[in-house]
Give the backbone structure.
Amino acid sequence: MKIRSVEAKNILSFDPDGVELGIDPKPTVIVGPNGAGKTNIVRLLDLVSTAIDWADEPTQQWGQLTMPGMVLRQFAERGHLTAAPQTRQLIRVQLELTTGAEKADVLTFFRAAIVSAVLQERSNSEDTAAVDAWVLAEVTEARLDPLFHGTLVLDHEGPPDLPWEVAYEFALDKGRRFRWVLRSVRFPGIFHAPVEGLDSRRDAQFDRLADRLFGPAENQGTGRTVPSVFPVFDLGRVCPSEPGRAVNPLIQGRSGRVEQERVAWRRFAESAGISAVTFPDRNYSLAWALSRVLRQGLVFVGEQFRGVGTGGVSPRSANLYRREDLRRPLPRKEPSFVPARLFRLKTGGAADRIRFRNIQEMFESLAPGRA
């Protein structure tokens, strides 16, 4: 994952006029005097990661505040010191998915969402088998490429008792832009067109995902509910075609309608850690894939961020490690384990030792005279 830009208005040290920071694809160092807002740039990224985790939570009831929800409410209450009360807050982080694992998460979700839609909207089990085979052949990384270049948006209207809207914006050809609402006051999981003038609190006219992909069900005495000849997959067919319309690509586990023999569903279940015999009591949106991407792509290390992203685990000092610590996977977001992670690289295989030396050279270039 690469972050291309960060924009913020009326939050932390960023006033209502806002700041927009373009980030070079090469390694970037932010420098400046104390109080300039360097740390707050990183805090914004951590807040975005927290918001995506919040959007992926199984419960969507506003009254039940989990840790991510409490963090978001605190930021909503705080705002900016110079802003009028209840002023809108906005954060936009433009990013690009660059690794095969990141793209695979989005692809796995999207394929399973299509199969889930057919299961919900059309009842013929034989048809879902045909759709499963079509999805695996037609829904590819290349055809989902617009989803790999997008902007995470956190938008809050101002009153602290209102929740944030968390969304993901992307563009198709000819500049058509869409907003995929991951969590909001109403209708989490849907996406709309166009972005301009969008108000997700208003009622939207929903298009059935299966209808948009395959057209109306055939079923003219044949029992078929999908076409006998499938179309070439085009992401544009999934996207809403006009203002006021919306599509809701969800993996719906609450209904219990899953078919383990469908490859697209099974691959998602394996990635999500869903038991082969237990139906999940929740639905999944694109937030599931983005949460996995950010969890792996954003690592916060530093004394001022002790405990960030560690699920409330109390920070510990970097000191002696137990043998068990060095055998199991090490936490990526707990600063006290950085020495242990470096030790593993230093004593690992050839590729690990090369990576360790590269890190060492980078440190020496940034801190001359230090080892």
About this structure: The two ends are 29 Å apart (CA to CA). The chain has a mean pLDDT of 79. The chain has two domains: 2-297, 303-366. Residues 2-297 form one domain.
